[in-house]
Amino acid sequence: MRKYIIYTGLIAVAGTMAAFFMYNKPHESIKKAKPAYELNAGEIYSDFEADETLANEKYLDKVVQVSGTVVESSTTEDGIVSITLDGGGMLGGVICQLDEFSDHEKTNYTAGETVTFRGKCTGMLMDVVLVRCVEVQ
Amino acid sequence: MKKILIAIALIGVSMSIHAQKYFTKEGKIAFSSDAPLEKIEAHNNKATSVIDVESGRMEFALLIKAFQFEKALMQEHFNENYMESSKFPKAIFKGQVVNMDEINLSKDGTYPAKVKGELTIHGVTNEVETEGVFEVKDGNISAQSAFEVAVADYDIEIPAVVRDNIAKIVLIDVNVNYQKLDR
C-alpha cells in the first residue's frame, strides 16, 4: 500500500514537472537554428512579389538567412530595432526586426552597410518581414 | 474637346494635391486576453497603416506570425491552433474616420475620432466600429485606439479544456505614429 502511494506521488511530481517545463519551454534559439534558406534580400522580395501564396508556402515560419544592403534602420520607443534591407522594389524591401530575446553585439546600422541576418519569415505586407533576427557574421 | 481635356487635367492635379496620405510600417498593435486562469499578452510592432487625411479613409494590415508572446508555447498554440496563421497570414482593417469633418490633421491638437470599417481576421470579415484619438504635435500625426474583439465572431474555436485560460473577448490596443507619404 505504501509503495503504491509513493509511486503515485512520484508520477504526479514527474507529471507536474513535465507540464511545468512544457509550459515554460523557451523560444526557439535563432542563433542555433539552421536556416532553411540562405539568399539575398532581392531574391526573397521578388519571390513574394511574384507569387505571394507560393512564397508564403515556401518561407512562412521558416528560419531564413538574408543578406543585403541596409536602406534604413529605426528604433522604437521600446528599444525594438528594425533594419530595412534593399529588396530592389520601388516601395518595399526586407525588414528585419532584431530578436527581443537575444543579445546583440550591434544595434546601430547605417545605410549602405552590407549585412546578413537570420530570422523567422512572417510574410509580406509592403515589405517582407522577418522577426527575431540575429546578425550573422 | 480641348477644354474637356484641360478640365480633366486640372481635376487630376487638384486631386493629387489634396490626396495627402500618411503611413507607417511600424504600427504597434497589442492584444491581451484576461481569463480566470491566465493572462495572455502579445505585441506586434510591424503593422502597416495608411491614412488619407483629406477623406479620412484608413487601412491597417499586420502579419499574424509577427505577434511576439512571452511564452513560446502560447505563440505556437496561437499560430497553429487558433489563428491558423499559415492559412490566414494577415489581419486587415479597411475603414473610414466617420467624423473627419471635425478633425484637422494639419493643425496641432488632440482629436477624438470615430472609426468604422471592416476587420478581417482568420479569414472572416466583420463590420466594426470603434473610437480612438488622433494627436497632432509639431506636424507629426499619431493615433491610438483600444477596442474589443469577440473571438467567436471570427470563427476561432477555443477547446473546452482551455476555456478558463483564454478570454472570449480579447482587448486590442492600437498605437501608430504616421509619417508623410511622399509620392
Oligomer: heterodimer
For the record, the CATH class of chain B is Mainly Beta
- CATH topology name of chain A: OB fold (Dihydrolipoamide Acetyltransferase, E2P)
Low-confidence stretches of chain A: none
Rg for CA atoms of chain A: 20 Å
Q: Which residues of chain B form runs of ≥5 with pLDDT under 50?
A: none
Helix proportion range of chain B: 10-25%
Gyration radius over CA of chain B: 19 Å
Task: Please report which band the strand proportion of chain A falls in: under 5%, 5-15%, 15-25%, 25-35%, 35-45% or over 45%.
Answer: 25-35%
Largest contact between chains? A-B, 28 and 23 residues
CATH architecture of chain A: Beta Barrel
Number of strands of chain A: 6
Gross geometry of chain A = elongated
Fraction of residues in H or I helices of chain A:
25-40%
* Corresponding CATH architecture of chain B: Beta Barrel
Number-wise, the strands of chain B total 9
